[in-house]
Amino acid sequence: MTIKLTFLGAARSVTGSRYLVDVDGTRLLVDCGMYQERQFRGRDWAPFPVDPRSINSVLLTHAHLDHSGLLPKLVRDGLRAPIYCTSATGEIAEVILLDSASLQEEDAEIKRKRHQREARNGPYPEVPLYTVHDAESCTPLFARAEYKTPVDVAPGVDATFFDAGHTLGSAALRLRIGRGAAERTIVFSGDLGRPGKPILNDPTTFTQADYVVMESTYGDRAIEPPENNAGELAEIINWTVKAGGNVIIPSFALERAQELLYYLNELLLKNTIPHLMVFVDSPMAVSITEIFRRHHELMDKDTNRLLQLGKSPFDFAGLNMVRTIDQSKAINHIAGTVIVIAGSGMCTGGRIKHHLVTNISRPDSSILFVGYQAAGTMGREIVDGAAQVRIFGEDYPVEARVVYLHGFSGHADQQQLLGWLTSLTKPPAHVFITHGESDVTESFAGLVRQKTGWNATAPEYGDEVVLD
Fold this sequence. Notes:
The protein has 14 helices and 22 strands. By secondary structure, it is of the alpha/beta class. Helix 6 (229-243) crosses helix 7 (256-269). The termini are close together.
């Protein structure tokens, strides 16, 4: 039995998660994500490194675009394999992929018109990476898996999904390959959440694995504890109310938007902030919040207690769920301070760009970041202190107050990652450090070697490893 592991994404980068497992010619793809860093987007447009028709199963850890977003392109190019994931992940992925396809169709049309006006061409074709029809074609392939229940995903290979505590339905995966003395186990961390975060349960730990592929997004730092989030959020809101501007929050539609609602609900219940209008300006976030309402069984005891008391964080006075473009445009004509939660989380597309156009040059407004900003994204430029940013082909000076609250991160920090890994009771044969910027993956691999003495490396894009 020969097992080959190929790193087709998230190798020394934070997005584009894709891992190919080949067992004697049977191909399994763990995650199928898009890149969001500008310098790597060409990899999304390039032909997939293997024929999508040759893939026997896809295993999806969760629904974020950097883990699921390339699925429609692969389906268009011939993928017909089942896509195994938890029920909540499947429901959310359907929403996210349709939204992504719609945005890409819109952006392609905007790009085409702009290039015609400016008489120039861009680096990528004036066509969407994939269409709404391509995204809809993914839905019949989703195959639901339950936590802690092995699923036969190929001859001699089963996969078990465990709660990763990162998003609703997110999973770490354990692949069991072969049987008896020849059996090997590979654990894929997916994206690991932080213990003690609201709404979700804590990540599952493992005691045994022959090989581990683990994320390292925050493998170089400690992150503020989540209990500081409410106070910091209140300070920003109250400052902005006094200044007379708006609070604009670029947010991922999955998990971060719902977590923000959780804290806003808490602040309002305690009268810590004024009772402002709160707009979730993202059809995708609105739809995903509906999915949250249907999956109480995946939430922690504190959130379930709020729900039982009729104090749902997903339905409070002043909360407005915005779906239509006209509703979105009307927000910018409201007098007084409002809170706007809009996608995308890294300012790479979506309605957040329109709200930035209106507010980023206002000294009385606040732009609040609550999620990781990958290198090469507009969000990262703003957080790093850019004097101006280019939006829809125009330059805008950054004069709003810019705040980055690290405590909202959905990723485990350095010590939490180490704690998760060292729950193993014996050394794995190898630990592969992925899903982090290049210097972070390298330094975290070194830290693992230093602290444990285990074999740990940070693979490069395209590396292929034969597992013994």
